[in-house]
Amino acid sequence: MKNILKRLIVDFQENPVPKRIARDIPFPVDSKKIVSLIGVRRSGKTSALQHTISKLGETVDPKKIVYLNFEDDRLDSLAIAELDLILEAYYELYPLHRESRTYWFFDEIQNIEGWEKFIRRMHDTEKGQIFITGSSAKLLGSELATSLRGRTLRYEVFPFSFREYLRYQNVEVNLHSSASRTLIKHHFDHYLTHGGFAECFDQSDDIQRRILRDYLDLVIYRDIVDRFGVTNRALLKHLIKYLFVNPATLVSYNKLYNEFRSQGFKISKDTLIDYFSYLNDAYAAFSVPIFRKSVREEQRNPKKIYIIDNSYKRLYDAFAGQDTGKLYENLVFLHLRRQTPDIYYFKQAYEVDFFVEGNLINVSTTIDNLSTRQRETRSLDEAMNHLGCTESLLLTAETGATIKTKSGTIHVLPVWEWLCSLSLIQK
After folding, report:
1. Fewest CB within 10 angstroms: 13, 111, 297, 329, which?
2. For 317, left (φ over 0), alpha (ψ -120 to 50), or beta?
3. pLDDT digit string (tens) for 33-42?
4. What is the pTM of this model?
């Protein structure tokens, strides 16, 4: 095994790192913490590591950079007791580097049972900077913080944002240029339904669907079924299909429980809640609570459900492109979720789609219809008055405007323009 590790280390160092698109994930390359990149499978964690390695290689001796992918079949037999062979192999290759600062990149390390003990010891005893990635639920959520006991900085990796997708397409974002705006809108129409999984970008519809099904099978079987010992696979698949067809929808556990029971599924409410939790841990689907000061009130109200990528709705729904309102709202959620997990919806007499860090946001495909315009502005006006906000945001397909209400100002922006920004609210 030691010789295999030496070969993998040297082969990577001797071969050029694949060119990757820069992601908007500002993780540090030199810190006193273990940098952990987590997220749904195939979201680009490996590519983010390789881009970092490429940039490091401009100023750091490539021999001081170690990259190992634990999904490599040559490492299948590697056990926790043998992980120390990684250090032995490297220092036998480069004995003078023992006192130097080195950079260690461990991709999908959760495949090794007990990996966290080795990483903790390595962090405490070696001088290097450690980066790890993981897709399965075992490396996500609270378990990561527990396993590494405050030694890690955690960064989430999602499929490409619209801004990153434009970068991939070599589109310059210049909102003051008519030509640039036209090109951005053209690419947005495709991104809206086809999503941000990079491997799908240049493929035919048929190939895209096959890729997405494979991705989903990995999430279902490796990250949920195997990890949590799920026995009712039919129910899990049915739940996934329901959620992916109906993103940006209010879901009540009680109503869903009764609906599934009426369809013949043997299910308990606790099982349903557990399955939602598993999907959240695997970054496949997310639930957003109502904003209330009481946690009990939050739990009593329905939650809004969003999915990791719009392409999954198209996978299950042949008419996904016609449901642009839900697709717009799901994109807005993902843009917000990349920046914060603290997302709510707000409701008094009327509902506001998002309440995030003091910002109120509604999403509507169009407000050309007077009744739609009144509904969207009325809900934002009520929420601003209740929460003491003076500004809010209304995202639409095309409209840009400023609307004054009794409680404050509503900034109306095209959603594609807002997605080009890295900030929560762009006015």
Report:
1. 297
2. beta
3. 999 999 998 8
4. 0.93
